[in-house]
Here is the input.
Amino acid sequence: MNGFRSMGVQVALPDGTPLDDVRALFDDRDRRFSRFLPSSELNRVNDLPRGATMVSEELASMLTLSLDAARATAGLVTPAVGGALLAAGYDRDFALLPRDGVAVRPAAVPSLDSISLRGRLLLRTEDVILDLNGVVKGRTVDDALALVGRGWVSAGGDVATETPVVVGLPAGGTVTLQAGGLATSSVAKRRWGDRSHHLIDPATGAPSESPWRDVTVAASSCLVADVAAKAALLLGHAGPPWLDRRGLAGRFVAHDGTATVNETWQQAVPVPVAA
Amino acid sequence: MTAPSSRLATARRRLRVARYGIAALAAAGFAGGIAAARASHAAVHHTTASSQAVQSDQSDQSGSFGFGSGSYIAPATSAPAVQSGGS
Here is the structure.
C-alpha cells in the first residue's frame, strides 16, 4: 500500500503518488491540533480553558471552520465537546485506551456563544476544552488532494478525489465516488467499555445513543462529508431526511448490520443495498 | 534527503497556490449551494431516547462552511480501491 500512518489512521494514496508533501501536511496538522500530544498548540490553548488567548493563524483558521460547521449543523458538530470527551474517558490516543472501559460521566457541552474569535484572539467566557476532530481530518484530506493535484487521498477511509474511485462501504457494498468527498462516521471503531465511544451527543454530553452504527455521506468535499456524516448519525432517525433536505447522499447502517439509504443516495445509486 | 522543515515549507507553499486556483470555482459553487439550501430550508425535529429536540434552522450555511449541492456517487463497476469504515 502507498501510504503512511498519521492522526491515528492509515493514510493512503494511489500507487506511485509521491508521499512526502502529504505526510508533512498530515504530521504538521497532527502536531498542532491533536488532543493527545502534550506539546500541541491545541493542548496549550486548552491548558487555560477560559479567557483571552492569542492563537496561531493556522489554529484560528481551523477553529473558524469548526465554528462555522457547528453553526451550519445547529450545534451538533461542535468544537466545544472536548470536556465531554474527557468525561467519557477519551483522554488519550485511542490505541492506549483500556478496552474494559471507564464509567461515563456526562459533562455539559458549552454553548457556541461561549466561544468567539476575533482574528487570532480567542475569547472563552466559560471553561471550554476545544476538540477540532470534527473538521481537522476531513479538511486535511481535502488539502492533501489539492497538494497532489490528481488521484485520490484516503485517511481512515475518509476520501477526497478528483477522479472516479470505487469505495467499499461498511457492512458490505461498494459505490463509485465520482468527485468530491466521502466519509463515514462510526460508533463501532473508537469504542471502549459497554457504551463509551467518541461521538458525543451535545444535548446530553454523553456518547450518542443513535440507532446508527455507521453513517456514510458523499458531498462536495471530504470535510463536508465528514461533518454531515457526524451530524446525521447524531440526529438518529431524523438523519436521512436531514441529509435529503441538503441534497446529500447518505447511507445508514444499524447496529444489527442492516443498511438503508436516503432518497438522495437511492436516486444516484438505484440498486438494493447489500446488508 | 530534504530536511523536514524545507519539505513542510514547500508543501505549505504548494497548498497556498492550489487553494488560490480553486477559490474562484469554489465561490461560484458555494453561491449556488446557498441559493439551493435557502430554497429547500425546513425545520428539523429530532428525538432519541437520550436527547432533546434539535432545531435545524436557517443557518445550515455558515461563514466558510457550506453543504454545497450535486451528485457525487454512482454505481460501482469494479472492485474497491479504498474501504470506508469510519474512524
